Amino acid sequence: MTKGNKLLEVNHLKQYFDIPTGFLGTISLKAVDDVSFSIEEGETLGLVGESGCGKTTVGRSLMYLYKPTGGEVKFEGKTIYDKKSIHEMRRKAQMVFQDPYSSLDPRMTIGDIIGEPLDVHMLYSSKKERQDKIRELMDIVGLSSEHATRYAHEFSGGQRQRIGIARALAVNPKFIVCDEPVSALDVSIRAQIINMFEDLQKTFNLTYLFIAHDILIVKHISNKIAVMYLGKIVEIAPSNELYYSPLHPYTISLLSAVLIP
């Protein structure tokens, strides 16, 4: 695909959850309600909004970690709808999770965590090739290959997030959903991880959906920004245009809450 083509299209995505309200009663919670957007190859779409607005649910639904209640997800022009198409998409699309403390299996070594996608998609022909790929991935994200036999609890938050990024890169993906990847990290580490995402994008021509509640971080890394409020996208525009000339009242209130250093 050439730059400018749509890599991902999301049309009228809906994700409702049934919430118990008492004896045999339920109420439908509209976590994502009729959301549509597209992302071109090589660009970053920032998805921003307050906690609970449905940002993470959008990311998980388009990766089919939750089966959408309604709507359509297209990846490389193909509609994702069954196990085969989901498996094919996950060969080219991965996710970096918010919490590096809970998204890594404490019983697995770092080498096995990073190598798991290689195992699932059978991307090596020998044990040596598998080990070489794991070492290469660890080097790409700034980890020593000596760490491969250690466990997640032995690492800091920033190092754990690097492990999660290495795991996402294992299948050589085109698209990565970054679900608040720096919100659980110290401020001093955030810039390092953000810069690494930018470097990886240039090196591997990656496309990102970057989910965050900090609009300054989103503006820094994104080409376009979509603003979510109560399960809906209320505004979408190029980053500078949205930052300096917001149209929706909710976007204006988000920007007014930004602390200027």
Sheet with the most strands: spatial strand order = 6-7-8-3-9-10
Helix content bin: 25-40%
**Overall number of strands:** 10
The average pLDDT score comes to 92
Globally, the shape reads: globular
N-C termini distance: 41 Å
- Strand portion, in percent? 25-35%
The value of Rg in angstroms is 19 Å
Query: Helix/strand/pairing class, anyone?
Result: alpha/beta
The sequence of SSEs as H and E is EEEHEEHEHHHEHEHEEHH
The major beta sheet can be summarized as: 6 strands, mixed
Low-confidence stretches: none
Structure annotation, total helices: 9
Structure, described:
This protein has 261 residues and is of the alpha/beta class. Helix content is 36%, strand content 28%. It contains nine helices and ten strands. It has helices spanning 55-62, 83-90, 110-120, 127-140, 157-169, 187-204, 215-221, 239-244, 249-256; strands spanning 6-22, 25-40, 44-48, 70-75, 78-79, 93-96, 175-179, 207-212, 224-229, 232-238. Strand 4 and strand 5 (78-79) form a beta hairpin. The radius of gyration is 19 Å and the shape is globular.
At a glance:
With 261 residues, this protein is of the alpha/beta class. 36% of the residues lie in helices and 28% in strands.
Please render the helix and strand layout as text:
Elements: E1 6-22, E2 25-40, E3 44-48, H1 55-62, E4 70-75, E5 78-79, H2 83-90, E6 93-96, H3 110-120, H4 127-140, H5 157-169, E7 175-179, H6 187-204, E8 207-212, H7 215-221, E9 224-229, E10 232-238, H8 239-244, H9 249-256
Helix pairs in contact: 3-4, 3-5, 4-5
